Structures are given as structure tokens and as C-alpha cells.
Amino acid sequence: MKEKLLEIRKQGLEKIEAVKTLEELQDVRRDLTGKKSALSEVLKTLGSLSPDMRKEIGMQSTEIKNIFVDKLNAKEGEIISSKSVLDKPLDVTLPGKKITPGVLHPVTQMCYDLNDAFASLGFEVFSEDDISSEKFVFDNLNFPPDHPARQMMDTYWIEKTEDKSNNERLCLRPHLTGASVRYLLKHGAPARFVYPGRVYRNEDVDSGHERAFFQYEALIVDKNISFSSGIVMIQTILEKVFGREIKVRMREGFFPFVEPGYEIDMECLVCGGKGCKVCKHNGWIEVMPGGVIHPNVLKSANLDPEEWTGFYINIGLERLVMMRYGVDDIRWFHSADLRFLEQFK
Amino acid sequence: MRVSLNLIKKYLDLPKELTPKQIAYDLTIRTVEVESVEDTSVKYQNIVVGKIVEIRNHPNADLLKICLTDIGEENPVQIVCGGSNLYEGEYVVVSKPGAKVIWHGEGEPVEIKETKMRGELSYGMICGAEEVYLDAFFPPKDDHEIVDLKGIDCYPGQNISEIVCMEDTILEIDNKSLTNRPDLWGHYGIARELGAIYHLPLKELPKVSIDSNLPKYEIDIQEKEKCNRYVGIEIENIYEKESPMWMKAMLVNTGMRPINAIVDITNYVMMAVGQPLHAFDRNHVDGEKIIVRNAKKDEKLLLLDNNTIDLTSDDLVICDKNDAMALAGIRGGKKDSILPDTTGIVLEIANFAASTIRKTGKRFDEKTEASIRYEKQIDTERVDQGVSLALQLIKDFYPESNIVKYGDCYPIKTKRAVIDLPQEFLDVRLGKVLKKDTIEEILKYLGYDVEYNKNVYHVTAPVWRSTGDISLKDDVMGDIARILSYQSFEAKPLSIKVSKAVHQNKVLLERRLREYLAYRCGLNEIFTYPWIDEKYLKAAKVDITKCIRLATAPSPEQANLRSSLIPGMLEAINKNLRYFDTFKMFEMAQVFEKGEYHPSTITETLPIHKKFLTGCVVGRDAKEIFYEVKGIIESMADYCHMHKLTFEQKEKPSWADVNGYLNVMCNDIEVGSIGLVSVSTMNDAKIKHTNVAMFEINFDKLIPYDSRTNKFEHLPQLPLVQKDLSILVDENITWKEIQELIENKVKEVEFIEEYNGNQIPSGKKSIMLRIKIGNDENTMTTEEINNKMDSIVKTLNKKCGAVLREE
């Protein structure tokens, strides 16, 4: 009897070992532990044995059955863990499925980044119509009457208004600053707002000059503030764009609508300020003009310059995008060429 | 403007330790942008004086000579030269190996190396003037002439830059940063700024006194507003000769060309103090009288080359008793030229109004060194500086000269601006309290007169800043801040108002729409120009008569401004079809149309502006792209949180296909349209082998919700039964008809697909739809389901002849 049990054990374990599939395993499980298994047959004969033998054989049978169950379960785990949902080999080096959302124009992306930054400082977003008048783009802004930009060659004047003056002489706005007076006339002071938009200049086009381009201007008007607070707006922009603090310097600059006016340079990111081709070997790149709003401009906005002051900054969005991504030709931005635009995912 | 540090040093003792780079930086930060710093002696490195000791014939070349030349080294060196004016004992200019020269005066500099010429060793090169940057000093008479230093005090081996006084440093200043500073268009003004920056006293200019007993030179200013002052000085014993080397060098370095001593003096004075001068040959001035007047109708100015220019009555001219001799402040005519037969001059030192110079200069498209300065509006007292410096130089260069007559007609004098500057204003606006001494010192260096009384600085601006530059206390504050440097004022943090958060619905809607189209619908954003080629306006069948036009257009065919974004989109499609078969784009921008609109008050009238949003889907399958565009618009309102958009077929857009279009409505108002682009529009826009579906929406008419309006709905307690039906209907039956028939019989009805394959009889189409049915009270029994389905099929059959398709 004992020999028989040993034989059952040996054969059973061999059978389990030989199993390859879950289906085979099921058959083997039935054969070894089912009602018709050899072990069951042995157990059925227990009654005919002596009490001692009965006990011993019974215990041994149960032990063998437990071993079978353990081994079968282990085998099952082994088979499942090596099982694949695939019936064929998978080429994992094939590319993944493409996602095809579109992209926002890089200028729009830049604009929204800046809007977010300025919104956190409590700035509203304002926009003005693309066509404006000499009154808003020059007269209100303290441009002298014979300033060259007023002449035919620099600004896109609208046909049949070009010989008129003030609010009857219309043009595609050459800069955004006119919108500042418009906003102040409408909303008064104190005020803080940004006004992004496209501006137009009658220029010869080359890799650094365009006839239509985007500017981003911010203005804050309040009482008793000093011009040096303007540098905070500058830092806001540059940190947002480049993700870290950027070294800037302010230097004298002249624009009719500010006094004092300044140019803001940032350290050249290409050479780290050592001097290279990009920065014309002086380590600095001119990024934006700014300044304290001129008293005459405040007067145009019906504000008392004795009471109010404020400052502007203005930045060319294309210029920033070009620095951010290393784009070397401004003409791409109005090209509508998807090969260019798709790069800015 | 080119600023010579040698000339600056005549007016200011700059400390030795101050490097040109530092000066450039400090000027850039505080006054004007210095674009570059140039050491003018660099290009003369290894170019030295040589003395030809012996000349031999070249054994292998008839035109070449072998010159044994003393260049200050132990032994004379052998140099092969083909110069036409070689002689033994001649002092010449030698480029030693390592020197960079311009071969034959053309092209980029080339480095000289020791070499063999036709078999004979040549240690360097004996040079012509143009080869070694000396043509302004030694104008060559023929091509093969080498520079002959005869009569010049020099020795072999001496560096040539010493001989021609070219050991200077030039700061190149961006003229744009000088537009508001007429005082900085001369070196004296720049020196004054450096004096303020470094606390150095500015040296006085020479003062030449005029003998008050001299006969008056008669001057008649007829246009006093245009000419505020005119000094005329008649001087005899002046003749054409060359200037000394230092003067030539100064002119070359500041960007002028030396001509002859008298012209050079006028140019030098202009560079030194910024006051233009003009010299007339006195024999050419008829009537010994200068008249400053407007040109007469049909008057002409005769130029040196015997051409004439036509004048208008706007042009201010300088005349003798008969004719115009010069265009005031811009250019001279034939009569004012200094020629070999000149024996005396009439010197003009005058003040002209900026506006007249600018106007006339613009019309003749002419900018001269003089007109650039006059355009900035020079003060009338600058004339005195010009007179003194010029007379001093004339006396130096022409000791035998003699002033014959002197006239000073001075109808309008520049008034110095007087400004009160309260201490408190400065403290607040500068954000920093400055010491009284600091403020007064800066202002005094800059030429202000300052009196301090009861916390107010009473300042009188210098006359050279009083022609518009300085008129308000803000201007004076600016001067103080910039000399201290803006960077020295600490950045003050901005305070944040917490009263109200920024909430701008329409601004946010614009962003949501762009992001929806790009990120959810897969359209790429583009920008196109507002001026549009007529070809595309015509292709889109836009009414061109309504377009606003530019007076000066980028090109003649681009004079129209867009009244729709469709034409620009057509052009962009055309361009991109070169690289892509299928693509999607959108643009959002303002468009313009004739008409009246008042953005602020009734007194301000602009043409009509609309903000449009236009997009396209380009692909072969017209039906597919039409429904794609329709889908984009259908879901737009839900995703962008704005009032619902619906469709009606009312009026075909000009560019759209006769059948494939829809008008887009919002609250029963038309806000745009969608459609397939018509065959004729595609032909005209040269869009081939593909189809295009577009939409155009007027953004101004879209209404954003104040917040998101999604509403939670309870999920059905009982399961719904889903059934797909495939029906065969007449091809004229629309989905809308089918939908309306069964909508109220079911919980949901959804369109799955339309099919017109081979198995479908002609004139029919197959439609597959999915319906969901259910009861609110209990789960439907099979019988209930079958009854419901039968009823639906019967209705469809009865109302629109639909029959179930066999599976």
C-alpha cells in the first residue's frame, strides 16, 4: 500500500511538472485530486485496513493530496504569469499612435503666458481696434506735430483720410500706446492693465523687420508711485518667459509719451553676457522700452498729472518668441506656414 | 554719430584709468546708446614709414622694381614694387608682413606675408593710399601711384597712424537715441554729459571778440519764424588749400571727408559744437547782401554739376540780390562752392527752424549732416559758439586773413525754460530722498542754473536744452534720475489691490475658443496680413467696394484691407497645399468695412470693425470635411461656455458651394456660416485636387456665460434598452425629419451612419440610427420592447416611407 502511495506521488508530481497549459492543468488537477483519482481509490480501500494502517495510510494520502494541490496552484500561477494577451510577438519598437491636436500660434502662447502672469498682479486685459486715428496714435501721446512717424512713409494711413488731421486722419495703428489713453478715458484711474495687439509699420521687410507684428504693453497708473516700480513689471515678464530670474539693466531712452523714458536690456542668454554675435558683442540685448507716463499724455486722458503718475512697458512679442525658441527670422510669424507653426506644440 | 575721444579730450580732462569701454557703458546707461567702440589705430598695425635707399630693376619683370627700403630695422629690406612714382630717397608707406591691406583698394582686408614676386623676395609691400586707408589724407592721382610722404616730418619705422594722427578711439552712437537732444550732435555736448557723469569741469570754448567798428554785412531775414538768426561774416585772403593732418584725421574719424581747409573748418566746427556752417565764395555773392526768404514760384537752384532743382514756395533759400544760392540748412548750390580761384568767403552761421528743414529735406529726399542737426531744433545761441570756433580756426589756418564785414541778424532768441521743482515731487516720484547737494551738482554740471528756496528748486534750463527737450519738472527729474542711473533706484514692489478680482468674460471666451479649436479640434492657429491680394478677395467673391483701402500699400495689389478672413485663409491653404494633403487651420482677427462706428464719443468715427473667427478643414472627401466643420461648430458652445449655436439654411455665403452650406445662428441672430468652398472660388484661388470646408463666425456676436452652466443629471435607475435600426428611405428625406418623428417616442435617438453603397437601390439611402428606450417605473418586458419598436418602425414607414433593411 505504501509503495502504491509512493508511486502515486511520484507519477503525480511528474504529471504536474509536464503541464504546459491551463487546460492541461485542469485535466491533471482532476486526475490527481478528483473523485476518480488514484488517491481517491486508495482512500476508498481504507475501510479494509487495520486501524493502525488506516491511520497511517490516511494521513499519508492527505499529505500527498496537499502536496498535489500546492504544486498545482504553484503551476497555475507560473502558467498565468507567463501568459500573454497577445497571440503573436509584438514589435515594441514601432512608434506609438499619433495624437493630432492643433497648436496655438507661438505669439498667442506667449501672449497668454504673459496675461496669466499679469492677471496674478491684478492687471486687466484690454484691446483696441486695429484702425485708429492720428489723434490717438500721435496727438494724445505728445508726439510733436512734425514727428517723422506722422508722415506718409512710416505709417499705413487709410486712403482718403491721409491729408486730414487729428481724429479724421486714420491709420492702421503703428503702436499700441494709443489704447492706453482710450482705456484711461473710459475707466479712469487708478488703473492697471495690459493691452496686447498687432501693430503695423510701413517698413522694408527683412529677417528682423516686419510690417505687421505683435506688441504687448502694460500700464499702471496710480498716485504716489515711483518710476522704479516699473522694474517689477519687467521682471514679471522675463521670469515668466524664461522660467528664471534674468539680469536686466535700465538705460536712458527717449519716447515722446514718457518722461523719463528707458530702454531695458537683458543679459544675452546665448553668451551669458560675455559678448557674442547675437548681442553684437556687448553682452546685452535690447528687449523693451518703458518709462513714466508723460504729463501731457495724462492730460489727454483727462487725468491731473499733479495727482497721477504711472509707467509703461512695451515689448515685441515676436522678439520674445524668437529669443525663447531661437527663431532667426521674424517673417515666419505671418507666413501661415504649418511646417513652422507645428513646431510649437 | 561718431564721437572721437581725442576731440572730447579737448574739452574734458578724462582720467587716464577710464577705459573707452567704461565710457561707452556709462554713456549708454545714462545718456545715449553707444553701439560700438573702435580703436582707429588698429588697422594701421605693421604699416610704417620706409625710405627707399636703392632701386634696382627686376630681372624678370619690366614694370616691377626692387626697392631696398629702410624701415627702421637693422638693415634695409628688399621690397618688390610696381609704383609709378618711385625714386631713391623717397619716403613711402610700407606694409610689413602681418599688416592687413585692401588689395588695389577693393574688397576685404588681406594679410601681408613675406613672399616672392617673379622670383624675387619681397618683404612686405610699398602701398598706394587706398590700400592702407590713407586716401582721405593722400588722394591718389593715378592707379599705380604709391604714397609719397615728401614734406612730412617722419622717420623710417615710424608707425603711419602717428603721421596721420589716427591714434584715436571712436564711439559709434545710435542716432535714434539722439533725436531729442540737439545739444548732443556736437562733441562739446557729449563732453558736457561725461562731465556730469564723472564730475569733471567742462573747458570753455574759445571766445573770439568781434571788432564792433567793423562795417555791417547786410542780412535780410524775410521769414523770421523759419530763420531765427543769421550771422554773415565776409573774410578776405582765404584760398583753397589743404587742412593740417590732425584736422583731416578728426574729420575722417567722425565720418566726414576732408575737402579743403575752409570746408573742413565748417565741418569740424559742426562736429565740435553741433552748429552747421556754410561758406560762400564772396565773389559769387552778388550785391554784398544775404536775403533769407521763401523760394519764388518756379524758382530753381543751380547745383555745382550744372543740374538744377525745382523749388516751391515752402522752401527756405539763401539768396544774393539775384538768385537762390543755397537751400537753407540742407545743401549749397553752385554759387557757394570754394574753388581754386576763391580769394575770400562769406561765412554763414545761422539758425533755421526744424520744421522747415524737415519738410524741404523730405521733399528732396535729402539728409545732410547739417539738416540732421537742424531737424533737432538747435538753440539760437549756438551760433555764437560756431562763430568763435570758426574764426579761431580761420585765424590759425590763414594768419593773413582779414574780416571785412560782420552782420548778425537776430530776430528771435531761444528762451531758457524756467521750472519749479518741489522737493516733495522728487522724493515721491524718484522713490528715494536725494541730498540737496547731489541734485544741485548734477543740474549744474548739465548747465542748469539752480536756486533753492522753501523746499523748491527754481531751475533755469540751459539754452541748448530749451528748444523743446526740457519744459516740465518731469524732464528735470528725468535728468537727475538718468545721471545717477535708473538702476541705482531700487525696484519698489507693486501693491496688489484685493478689492476685486479681474473677471473679463469676453476676454476669456476668446481664449477658450482658440484653445478649443487648437487642442480639442486639432486646428492650427495662423496669422495673415490685414492687407490682402485682390486675387483672393475676388476668389472669395467679397464685395471689394466695401473694403477700406490703404493710402500707401505694401504693394499696389495689396491696397485693400480685409473685410473677411476667408480670402487670407484661401491664400494660406494654397501655400500649405505644397507640403500637406490634409490640414486644418484657424485665424482670429479684426476685419474692416466701410461704414461708421463710434468707439468712444460721437466725435470719433472709425470704419466698421468686426472680430472674426475663421477656420478650414482641407481634405479629399467633401462630405466628411463638411460634417467635421459642422461638428466643430455644433460642440463649440458646450465646450466654450457660451450661448448655443444652431443652424439654418437661409443665405449662401459668397464663397460657398450651392448645396453645402449652413448659416450659424445664436439666439435667432445670424452669427456666421459654414460651408464647402465652391468650385469657382477654388478655381480662382488656385486650390486644386482637394476640397475645403470653412467656417466664419463673428466673435462680437457670441455671448459668453458668466460661469460654467453644466448641470448634473441623475443617472437612470433602470437600464435602458439600446436598439440599432437600419432603414431605407428616399434620398431626399433629411435626418431632421426622421429625428423629429421618433424623438418623443424614445429616451434618446442618435445618428450612426448614412450609406449609399451598391446594394442600395438608386434614389434611396440607408440610414443607421441608435435608439434607447425605457420605462421610468419598471424594466421593460420583451413584449413591451417589441411593441415599442414596431410602433417606431410603423411611424417611420407611414410618415417618410422608411422600410427596415434586411440584415
What brief labels describe this structure?
heterodimer, A: 345 residues, alpha+beta, 37% helix, B: 807 residues, OB fold (Dihydrolipoamide Acetyltransferase, E2P), Phenylalanyl-tRNA Synthetase, Chain B, domain 3, seven-stranded mixed beta sheet, five-stranded antiparallel beta sheet, 25% helix, 27% strand, elongated
Structure overview:
The complex is a heterodimer of chains A (345) and B (807). Chain A has 345 residues and is an alpha+beta fold. Chain A is built from eleven helices and nine strands. Chain A has a seven-stranded mixed beta sheet. In chain A, strands 2-3 form a two-stranded antiparallel ribbon. The model of chain A has no long low-confidence stretch (mean pLDDT 88). Chain B folds into six domains: 2-39 and 168-175 and 188-198, Phenylalanyl-tRNA Synthetase, Chain B, domain 1 (2-Layer Sandwich); 42-163, Nucleic acid-binding proteins (OB fold (Dihydrolipoamide Acetyltransferase, E2P), Beta Barrel); 218-409, Phenylalanyl-trna Synthetase, Chain B, domain 3 (Phenylalanyl-tRNA Synthetase, Chain B, domain 3, 3-Layer(bba) Sandwich), CATH 3.50.40; 418-488, Phenylalanyl-tRNA Synthetase, Chain B, domain 1, CATH 3.30.56; 505-701, BirA Bifunctional Protein, domain 2; 721-804, Alpha-Beta Plaits. Chain B is built from 19 helices and 37 strands. Chain B has a seven-stranded mixed beta sheet with strand order 27-28-29-33-32-31-30, sandwiched between helices. Chain B has a five-stranded antiparallel beta sheet with strand order 5-4-3-6-11, with no helix packed on it. In chain B, helix 6 (261-273) packs antiparallel against helix 9. Chain B is elongated, with a radius of gyration of 42 Å. Chains A and B meet through helix 5, strand 1, strand 2, helix 7 and helix 8 of A and helix 2, helix 7, helix 10, helix 12 and helix 13 of B.
